[in-house]
Amino acid sequence: MSFTITDLEQLQTEHPEWQMELVEGKIIVIGPSDYESEEIGTRLSTFLNIWVMSRKLGRVTGSSAGFILPKIEEDDLEKRNLRAPDVSFVRAERLKKTKRDFVELVPDLMVEIKSKSDRIKPLEEKIQLFLQLGSTVGILINPDKLTVTVYRLNQAPVMLQNGDTLTLPDLLPGWELAVSELWPPEFE
């Protein structure tokens, strides 16, 4: 059986506590993230939002924002994927007004944060899909190795670590973030 976005919306009505994605006609239920991964996503969203909101550059969202991706096959209108990156950014000119629904576009920036139970390969495949469909930048944050890998279409990935600075000049000229700022602090 192949599911549609309408099917997913119906399931969400029946089970609002579930977070789901639609991938090639299959509904994937996403379990809660581990605390550290979620905190890293919140930290990145905060750092991005401080820059983006004050300059009215666009919209930053977290892991619950659903994106209806372009159809994979031209003749199959129902074969649409609904995916939710852990953090995303959409430029203001592409989404002038927010929607009370899933948005039918590919974010300019998509970020995946490896949780304790995630495997790297599916996260990289998700990032590559978004890049092929039009995202400018994809980022994979790996808290286990304290690395941030930046992906762009048809370019070699760039791995950053503590001591490096994350910049996105093609999307957010002037914005920069020390990689070490992503990791949750330890309190005395």
Kindly state the number of beta strands.
Answer: 12
Q: What structural class do you assign from the helix and strand content?
A: alpha+beta
Helix content: 10-25%
Q: End-to-end distance, in Å?
A: 53 Å
Indicate the low-confidence ranges by residue numbers.
none
Task: Give the gist of this structure.
This protein is an alpha+beta fold and 188 residues long.
Textual characterization of the structure:
With 188 residues, the chain is an alpha+beta fold. The protein has helices at 5-14, 35-55, 120-133, and strands at 19-23, 26-30, 58-61, 67-68, 82-83, 87-91, 109-113, 137-142, 147-151, 158-161, 165-167, 176-178. The strands form four sheets. The protein has a six-stranded mixed sheet with strand order 3-6-7-8-9-10, with helices on both faces. Strands 1-2 form a two-stranded antiparallel sheet. The longest helix has 21 residues, at 35-55. It is globular and about 50 Å long. It starts with a helix and ends in a 10-residue tail after the last strand.
